[in-house]
């Protein structure tokens, strides 16, 4: 019984409305043990007949029987299964994987048919020895001669252990010596199999073949028996399995790196995609963050979303022990004890050439470097962080750092000459906003001076005299509280005009109560009237010359005055590490007995944030689509070199699904390498090993969930690119695809 039978089989080609005949009404039968040579001039249809017999191409009419079974109803999957079980191909152009070694080329066909790597080593080595290529087993086939390549192709065909070997011009590219050895080897193989070859040089094979078929113009001119064959040869077809998932993964990884220029080009494309996605997304996250934190508040100047204002529920001061407990909370980055400074602008000046405005911060909270000068070391040394567009900080930095500066009173505008300051370091911000407040980093001593000034400015001072309350402020002198060194502690000097209010026109010995109230604390000072002053004695008892400008003030000892404002901290601000965990931190603070205020919640906002979110979503989608089509176009060009590879493994028995999976694995590998390579670059930037500006934005604004989202988008794009490329690559038969490429 014949293994292959063709009955009135015809093959036609269609090209732009023109029908061409490959061959017409062919009737042939082939049996095991035959060594058949098909000859004829170019264009006679012999190679087309070979492709139809091997299942690489379809036919349009008639019937081809395989082992007695009809094939006219076969689809692509059926022919894939047929090629895997029955056909071992030897191609004129070898169709080897040039980037693979001899061993890997032969191993490949076994892996594609379900074998495990650990089980096939001995078989592959034996086949390599059979074709006398053992010493070249680890050599890439691109470095072999034509004869050696053809031997690899034969060994690969034998590795499948199929009953039929199909060879198209197996000696066409070989010298006579190599050709003779190849034909002799095929002759030996035909004793147990059916071997069909196409050749232009019949004289080269006539001593070995058992049958000669001659074709002309798509028809059989001659079918001549040359030798008898053993008709009792039996054969078995193997029930091949699909490649295992592990071996598929291993092949995909091998394919990722086997052609280094291709890998580097793909890596460059994917790095571009990763960088573009992360840069765009982090940019919009930054804009979204700015929009969410935009708005205004008439009190708070530092409106950071990381800031939580705290006060004790019992309204007592916050002690050092309290600060220690607060700093031990998981999400606390640092604490600004003198919280009120954050929302108050201060001025340092020499009252002549320089005026430096900004918000005061404690130098202990600064942990970066400086651009000019050095970090402060002494209590009178200052660091300023501000815009490079600031004329004083940039153009006059050198002169500024040689000048003594003083704090200007927030309340009165007077210069405090008691504390001499010197700027020793400047750090420039990335902001171009000239009007944004600078940050002035001061020592504890300077901070305490400022705290006194601020408490005094924002306090309401009431004077209780003879059961009546009077407001002390700078609008007039009546009951204005003024410190004077001539007044003893616990005493108060008042204007003699007030004697009229007292019994017997004498206020000496009467009590005066000074009450200070502000947002942070309330304090009361009880004093005794010891003296009264008038125009005659004001110089003598208070050392004041101008009576008219000072009459009405009440004078107290400076220490008593200072004690009203030199207070501990009643309010502080905590800055957190992770904004997403702010609610947990606030809950912990409340459990510790603190009232809290999230500064971000105090802002008056517009709808900018929502508009940014909508815009971000639309632009992100557009960017992803744009990147997809650009990257697909570029990757398709790069992967054009892979067309031969995938067409070859299809001809070796791989299904379309296997080919598509290998392509997906290859692109996903490159995508993962690109993604995690860029993560390493981000980490290096974070660790100050390198310094790339735009990566700082990625670090600042992308969260773990954002990295995961972008990773999934990248994988999704890779899958879509793979599927789109696969659809284009595999929509035609393998022989047509490889024919167009080769």
Unreliable segments (pLDDT under 50, ≥5 consecutive)? Answer: none
- Sheet with most strands: strand arrangement: 21-20-24-25-23-26-22
Distance between termini?
38 Å
Helicity range? 25-40%
What is the tally of beta strands? 28
What percent strand?
Answer: 15-25%
Radius of gyration: 46 Å
Question: Can you walk through the features of this model?
Answer:
The chain is of the alpha/beta class and 742 residues long. 38% of the residues lie in helices and 23% in strands. The protein contains 21 helices and 28 strands. A seven-stranded mixed sheet has the order 21-20-24-25-23-26-22. The chain has a six-stranded mixed sheet with strand order 6-7-8-3-9-10, with helices on both faces. A six-stranded mixed beta barrel has the order 13-14-19-16-18-17. A hairpin with a 2-residue loop joins β4 (61-66) and β5. α8 packs antiparallel against α16 (608-638) and α18 packs antiparallel against α20. It is rod-shaped, with a radius of gyration of 46 Å. The two termini are 38 Å apart.
Brief characterization of the structure:
The protein is α/β, with parallel strands linked by helices. Helices cover 38% and strands 23% of the residues.
List the helices and strands and how they pair.
Blueprint: E1 4-15, E2 18-30, E3 35-39, H1 46-53, E4 61-66, E5 69-70, H2 76-86, E6 87-90, H3 102-112, H4 117-130, H5 146-159, E7 164-168, H6 176-189, E8 194-198, E9 211-216, E10 219-225, H7 245-257, H8 260-292, E11 307-312, H9 320-327, E12 332-336, E13 345-349, E14 355-362, E15 372-373, E16 381-387, H10 391-394, H11 397-400, E17 405-408, E18 415-429, E19 438-442, H12 444-457, E20 460-465, E21 468-472, E22 481-483, E23 491-495, E24 511-517, E25 522-533, H13 538-542, E26 554-556, H14 558-563, E27 571-576, H15 582-591, E28 594-598, H16 608-638, H17 643-651, H18 656-686, H19 693-701, H20 704-729, H21 734-741
Parallel strand pairs: 3-8, 3-9, 6-7, 7-8, 14-19, 16-18, 22-26, 23-25
Antiparallel strand pairs: 1-2, 1-4, 4-5, 9-10, 11-27, 11-28, 12-27, 13-14, 13-17, 15-18, 16-19, 17-18, 20-21, 20-24, 23-26, 24-25
Helix pairs in contact: 3-4, 3-5, 4-5, 5-6, 7-18, 8-16, 8-18, 8-19, 16-20, 17-21, 18-20
């Amino acid at each position: 019984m014949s293994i292959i039978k063709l009955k009135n089989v015809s093959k036609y080609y269609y090209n732009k409305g023109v029908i061409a005949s490959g061959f017409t009404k062919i009737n042939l039968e082939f049996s095991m043990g035959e060594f058949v040579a098909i000859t004829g001039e170019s264009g006679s249809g012999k190679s087309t007949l070979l492709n139809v017999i091997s299942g690489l191409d379809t036919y349009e009419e008639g019937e081809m029987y395989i082992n007695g079974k009809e094939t006219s109803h076969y689809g692509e999957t059926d022919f894939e299964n047929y090629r895997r079980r029955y056909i071992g191909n030897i191609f004129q152009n070898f169709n080897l994987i040039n980037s693979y070694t001899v061993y890997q080329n032969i191993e490949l066909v076994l892996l594609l048919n379900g074998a495990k790597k650990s089980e096939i080593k001995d078989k592959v080595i034996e086949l390599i020895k059979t074709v006398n290529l053992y010493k070249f087993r680890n050599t890439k086939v691109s470095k072999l001669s034509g004869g050696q390549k053809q031997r690899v192709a034969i060994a690969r065909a034998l590795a499948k252990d199929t009953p039929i070997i199909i060879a198209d011009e197996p000696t066409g590219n070989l010298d006579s010596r190599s050709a003779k050895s190849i034909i002799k080897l095929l002759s030996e193989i035909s004793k147990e199999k059916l071997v069909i070859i196409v050749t232009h040089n019949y004289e080269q094979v006539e001593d070995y073949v058992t049958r000669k078929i001659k074709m002309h113009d798509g028809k059989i001119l001659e079918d001549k028996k040359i030798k008898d064959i053993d008709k009792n040869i039996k054969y078995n077809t193997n029930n091949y399995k699909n490649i295992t998932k592990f071996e598929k993964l291993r092949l995909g990884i091998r394919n990722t790196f086997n052609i280094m220029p291709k890998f580097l080009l793909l890596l460059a494309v994917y790095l571009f995609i990763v960088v573009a996605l992360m840069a765009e997304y982090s940019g919009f996250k930054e804009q979204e963050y700015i929009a969410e934190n935009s708005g205004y508040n008439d009190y708070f100047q530092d409106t950071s979303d990381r800031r939580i204002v705290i006060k004790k529920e019992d309204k007592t001061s916050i002690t050092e022990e309290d600060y220690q407990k607060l700093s031990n909370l998981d999400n606390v980055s640092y604490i600004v004890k003198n919280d009120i400074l954050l929302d108050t602008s201060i001025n340092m000046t020499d009252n002549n050439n320089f005026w430096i405005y900004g918000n005061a911060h404690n130098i202990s909270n600064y942990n970066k470097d400086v651009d000019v000068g050095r970090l402060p070391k002494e209590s009178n040394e200052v660091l300023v962080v501000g815009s490079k567009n600031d004329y004083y900080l940039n153009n006059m930095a050198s002169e500024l750092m040689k000048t003594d500066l003083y704090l200007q009173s927030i309340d009165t505008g007077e210069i405090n000459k008691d504390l001499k300051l010197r700027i020793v370091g400047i750090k420039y911000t990335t902001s171009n906003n000239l009007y944004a407040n600078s940050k002035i980093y001061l020592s504890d001593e300077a901070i305490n001076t400022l705290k006194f000034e601020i408490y005094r400015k924002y306090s309401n001072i009431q004077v209780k005299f003879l059961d009546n309350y009077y407001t002390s402020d700078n609008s007039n002198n009546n009951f204005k509280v003024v410190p004077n060194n001539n007044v003893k502690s616990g005493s108060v000097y008042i204007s003699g005009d007030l004697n009229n209010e007292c019994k017997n026109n004498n206020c000496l010995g009467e009590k005066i109560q000074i009450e200070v109230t502000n947002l942070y604390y309330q304090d009361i000072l009880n004093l005794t009237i010891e003296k009264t002053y008038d125009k005659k004695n004001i110089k003598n008892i208070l050392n004041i010359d101008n009576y008219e400008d000072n009459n009405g003030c009440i004078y107290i000892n400076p220490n008593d005055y200072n004690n009203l404002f030199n207070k501990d901290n009643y309010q502080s601000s905590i800055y957190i590490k992770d904004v997403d965990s702010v609610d947990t931190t606030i809950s912990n603070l409340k459990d510790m007995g603190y009232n809290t205020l999230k500064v971000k919640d105090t802002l008056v906002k517009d709808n900018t944030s929502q508009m940014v979110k909508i815009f971000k979503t639309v632009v992100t989608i557009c960017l992803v689509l744009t990147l997809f089509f650009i990257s697909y176009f570029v990757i398709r060009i790069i992967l054009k070199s892979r067309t031969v590879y995938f067409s070859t493994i299809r001809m070796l028995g791989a299904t379309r699904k296997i080919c598509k999976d290998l392509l997906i694995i290859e692109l996903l590998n490159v995508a993962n390498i690109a993604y995690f390579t860029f993560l390493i670059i981000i980490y290096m930037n974070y660790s100050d090993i390198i310094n790339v500006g735009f990566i700082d934005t990625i670090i600042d604004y992308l969260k773990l969930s954002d990295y995961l989202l972008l990773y999934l988008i990248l994988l999704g794009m890779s899958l879509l690119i793979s599927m789109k490329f696969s659809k284009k690559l595999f929509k035609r038969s393998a022989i047509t695809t490889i024919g167009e490429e080769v």
